Amino acid sequence: MTTPDSTAPVTLTHKPKLHALLVGVGAYERVRPLRGPVGDARALMQYLQRLDDFDPHLLLLADQEASKPAVIAGFQTHLSQAQPADTVLFYFAGHGAQEAADPALWPTESDGKLECIVCHDAGTTSSWDFLLADKELRFLIGQVSATGAHVVTIFDCCHSGDNTRAAGLLGELLAGQDVRERRLTQSHPRRPYEGFFFHEVLPLSQLQQQGPSAALPIGPHIQMAACESDESAVEAGGEGIFTKNLLAVLEAAHGQVSYRDLHNRVRQYMRFGYEQRPRVYVPDQSDYVEQTGLLSQGFLNQPIDESTLSASVTYNAQEGWLLDVGAIHGVGQSDQTIYLHDGANHMTDPVRIGRIGADYTVLSLADDVKAVLSKAVVYRA
User: Fold this and answer.
1) Quick one: which of 80, 87, 181, 244 has the fewest CB in 10 Å?
2) Alpha-carbon distance 158 to 88, whole Å?
3) Could you give the angle at which helices 259-270 and 241-253 cross, rounded to 10 degrees?
């Protein structure tokens, strides 16, 4: 009879935890409602639940659940549980807004505005009861970043207040669909310092003595946003354009995509159809960025298999079939062979390179290949 050797080392493999706070607000009561945010948040949640690399800890706040105090508590009691080996994700879909900035408090705001996300607005008496300002988000992200976890924020809302071009353009492109801007065009009045939820933890005297940059340090994180600061984020047919394309890219890449490539591919899909350019941002901490190469890391800090170079192919109504890499990625007329893979039809076919753009390539496909492809599917190449 043999017994196990109790002195032998035992190796346990633990998956890193994914702490995600997903917020979707569409059923506003004091401001114009939206149709898509809750569905967008749930779609992202379903995607995260399918990831094999993580032990998921997901919290969804939808509509009335997503009050400003609830969102703050989600950061401080849920996301702050993360450990250094974990990943933290904050996602928000809903309205973006601006409010007047007090120049005595926030002298670096060149446009005199603070950017805000609009939490659920029922039962509030003042705008700052439901507007979570960028300075408040900065405070919360700083707390979570202090855990040492890999921190990602995604916003499908608009932070601009003076540009209305996108809604008109999309109204023409998406005739017959319900198209709505995810922003409030009215700028909200200046709040007193007591209107910032951190005013007791960070006294006004300390803010004035240290200055905003030192008193509210930027925690290391990656931010992905639905549009540039002078554009509008929109939804059509009850879906956020940005979230829909973001998930399409992630599904097509099977998670094998860096933040930089994810950003480029989502922008590519939206390039010719929408006047809305997603952006990716890393705080200006040169040493940190240089040491970690944040934008080259896999989405949610997932490992990337470098053995295979892959790209994505999607159909664009104006340009036809597009590859999401171009001249700046080294695409040439004769030095590469590109194969389009169609898993549904079990076929892999070579495709010809047509016009090469800076960061996209128009492909020339044989008629028999085009006949079996779906214009709604993202293909790998």
Assistant:
1) 80
2) 22
3) 120
